[in-house]
Each structure stands twice: as structure tokens, then as C-alpha cells.
Amino acid sequence: MALQKVGGYEVVRPLGSGGMGTVYFAVSPTADRVALKVIKRELLEAPTMRERFAAEVESLKLVFGSRVARLEDADTTGDPAWLAVEYVPGATLRQHVDARGPLSLSMAAMVGAMLADGLAKVHQVGLLHRDLKPQNIILGPDGPKLIDFGLAVLIDRDHYLTEAGALVGTPAYMSPEQVRGERELTPAVDIYGLAATLVFALTGHGLYPPTNSWNLLLRITEPTDLPDLSGVPDELVQLLGAMLAHDPTARPGLDDVRARLLAVASASSGKTALDLRQEVAALTYNGETELLVPPDLVDPTQDPEDLPVVAEESTAEVPETTPTKVDPERPASPRPDVTWLVDKIRRQYARRSTL
């Protein structure tokens, strides 16, 4: 049965689905647009899972910044459980590269620096993204934004391997420590995911050739099986290689990554960060993808003061008058302009019905 309303939001259409659940485009009673994620019931059936979900949502409330889609509302105890985040118009990075090809060096480096800003805000509140990939980056009207941050912790390794649909693009961007099932993850996991995402943005291919999930995961955990950086410009090979280090402690920190990406973006283009930011938005935002509030969900109430005043017709009899004879030889005298008086009387009549 199709959903019609969830938590007061009117569900308009599905946007996609993944390991956590289904995402819908929905509209609030005041016509705010949101991306509403309905969590799969089976994910929340395990002991303490709802408590973990509630804790993650509380943390998400603290995340801020222009590079992350803000949390709007959530119900962690409902059936179904759900959360609503800001709707960001635009194509995903994956959709953009698939449709228009890889980004230029300067554009990819600037996108990476802007995403590093977003990750810094996520890390500041003690969260990790854990599922950074091109599908989780929206190229909006003001540049890239991170979505789906913080909640990948609800999906364990078994779901990636056994659940239908959960493998779409995700394992290819997982760090070795994630694949090994380590629970004590650090911000380095998102450094790895950012590098894997930038490799795709620059080349259109992943770190390893397409293969079945087991072979892919085995390759990721093999220290001597290095990621494929063919096609990556020379200016970024060293940085991305370091970000993809098998040992998470060997990866550079987020501040270092952002500074080096900005340096490459500026040096390769000769432009300022402001110019590059504007160029990213102009070249990557696809306004045709934007979803609008359906007309049948909009019910504006007209302000009574804006309604036209219609005077009631008088029922009093008007005495007949004798037509005035006009001398054809005598020019008619001009009639005085009394429209101002008529308008004044109408306004007074509209205000005082006893006139």
C-alpha cells in the first residue's frame, strides 16, 4: 500500500531506496519540501537498534553548515520510523558524471574542498558519515551538499552482503577498516570515502574493477592490492593516494586535505576560491531536476482586504427624467471630472455599510 502521509508530511513521490529504507519527496502543511526517509522495519527489530537510531538522530540535530542537508524532523519510535531532511534540488554527483562525464581538475578539487568543509561540520559533533559516495552528494544551486550522513551505522556488514539492493555503489567506497567490520571507526574513514569519490569524479571509474561483492571486499582489505588511480591528474595522485592509505593512521587530516585541494584548484585554474565556487554551481547544477510542490497541495487563502468591493444594487425606484434638448449649433460644454468623487464615495460605502 502506497504511503500518503507520514508524520504530517504529504508524500508526493519516491526518490530512491537503499540499505536503510525508501526516500520520498514530501511536503509539509506549510509547503516546505523535504526528503523523507522511511526506515526499514527489519533494521530496527534488533535489540537496542531503536535506541541507537534515536541517539544518531539527536546527534544529527547538532550538524550545521551550508554543505550538509539539515535535519527537519524525525520520529524514532513510530511505525514506521522516519526522518525528514532538507530537500536539495539538483543531480547527484554520480548522475552528473554519468550524464556529462568527469569533472575537470579545478572543478573536482574545489568540489572536494567544499565537501571537506561539510565533513568538518559532521565531525565536530562527533559523527562520521560512514557512507560517503557520489550518490550521497547533491550538486545543488549553491554547490555540493552531503546527504545521508551519520546513519550508515545502522547497517552492519551482513546487510551489505546479503540484502537485495544494498550493494548499489556502496562497497566500492568503503574503507578497509569498514570492510573488516571494525566498530571503533575514526574520521579517517571519511577521508578514504572522499578520496574514492574524487577518483570517480575525475575519472568516471571506481577504485577497483567491477566484480562480485565478495571479491571486491577481499581486494579492499588486501594491503598490497592498491586502488586504481589511472586517469587521475598528476597534481592529485599523491594526495589521493595518501587519503586511500590502507592504514587509517597514515591518512592526512581533514584540514590538510582541504588546504591542498584548494591549492590545486586555484593553481590549476588561476582563479580565486570565490570564482571557483560560483563556477562549480554554474557548471554542475541542473535546475531541470528540481521537484516543485504539486498545485493540488497548495491552498492559499486570499486576504479579505485584497478582495474587490462590490456595491449592492439599489432597489429604490429612479424617477424618469426628461431628456435635455441640445442645440446642435452650440458646442457642448466640457463635463467636469468627478471620478475622484465617485471613488471616494465607493470607498466610504465599502467601509460603512450604513451610508
Automatic annotation (TrEMBL):
Region of interest called Disordered, as start-end residue ranges on this chain: 310-337
Q: What domain of life is recorded for the organism?
A: Bacteria
One GO molecular-function entry: protein serine/threonine kinase activity
Statement: the UniProt record of this protein carries the keyword Transferase: yes
InterPro entries, sorted:
Kinase-like_dom_sf (IPR011009), Prot_kinase_dom (IPR000719), Protein_kinase_ATP_BS (IPR017441), Ser/Thr_kinase_AS (IPR008271)
Residues bound to ATP are: 37
Q: Enumerate the spans annotated as Protein kinase domain.
A: 9-262
Extract the Pfam families matched here. Answer: Pkinase
Record's keyword terms, sorted: ATP-binding, Kinase, Nucleotide-binding, Serine/threonine-protein kinase, Transferase
This chain's protein is named Serine/threonine protein kinase
